[in-house]
Amino acid sequence: MKKLFIAALLLLASGSTHAYNYYYNIKPYHLALTLSNPLSASFKYGGGWEHRYRNFAYMLTYYKYTGAYPGTQMNMDMRIYLRKRWMNERTNVHYQHFIYTRGIFGTAGFDGPKLAIFGYDSKVELAQTLYYGVAAGVGRRYSKGHFFVTLKGGLKYCEVADVTTAEKKLYRLFYATGPGSILEFNIQFGLQL
């Protein structure tokens, strides 16, 4: 029984290591239309357009936030895709790693009633103000035919302009869970041509 268990483990390990092989001859896409993660649609929705030339791509995106910090966000991503593309030979799904940097520009207000459960003053509402920032990180893009899913994560730094010292206390969660969150993890999907 012990030998059968060890043989099964070796078979599974060898199958998983050979399921993905790397290829250099997969033709990359040139244009992609992307949408944000549908699971976050209750507080953020939007999309963008990506153009790729060989292993370099840039992407313009626009998002609308409807949560406690309502407003908009515009991004300009620059991506460098690593040379190797990995493909699962059984499903024809291939993926490629990339690194990215991004410039951020947007507006954010404050909607106190949505944060009353966290102890914030539920009567305070602030008009939208500008913010800007940068982000950098790594990601992986899964593709099959004309469809793709992108997973990426990294660090982000944002600065809110024109707020008083008292108002800065209201923007604490903006840097934890709002549009200016320091840690970011994004899922995007869409069509590529």
Keywords:
10 strands; 193 residues; mainly beta; 8-stranded antiparallel beta barrel
Detailed description of the structure:
This protein is mostly beta strands. 11% of the residues lie in helices and 56% in strands. The chain contains two helices and ten strands. It has helices at 2-19, 165-168, and strands at 20-23, 31-36, 44-53, 56-65, 71-81, 85-88, 93-111, 125-144, 147-160, 183-192. An eight-stranded antiparallel β-barrel has the order 2-3-4-5-7-8-9-10. A hairpin with a 7-residue loop joins strand 2 (31-36) and strand 3. The longest helix has 18 residues, at 2-19. The protein starts with a helix and ends with a strand. Mean pLDDT is 86; it is low at 11-18.
Write the layout of secondary structure elements.
Blueprint: H1 2-19, E1 20-23, E2 31-36, E3 44-53, E4 56-65, E5 71-81, E6 85-88, E7 93-111, E8 125-144, E9 147-160, H2 165-168, E10 183-192
Counted beta strands: 10
DSSP helical segment count: 2
Q: State the major sheet.
A: 8 strands, antiparallel, barrel
Structural class, from helix and strand content? mainly beta
Q: Report the β-strand fraction as a percent range.
A: over 45%
Distance between the termini: 52 Å
Shape assignment: elongated
Order of helices and strands: HEEEEEEEEEHE
Radius of gyration over alpha carbons? Answer: 21 Å
- What topology, given as strand order, has the largest sheet? 2-3-4-5-7-8-9-10
Percent range for helical residues?
A: 10-25%
> Mean pLDDT score, rounded?
86
Which stretches are poorly predicted, pLDDT < 50 over at least 5 residues? 11-18
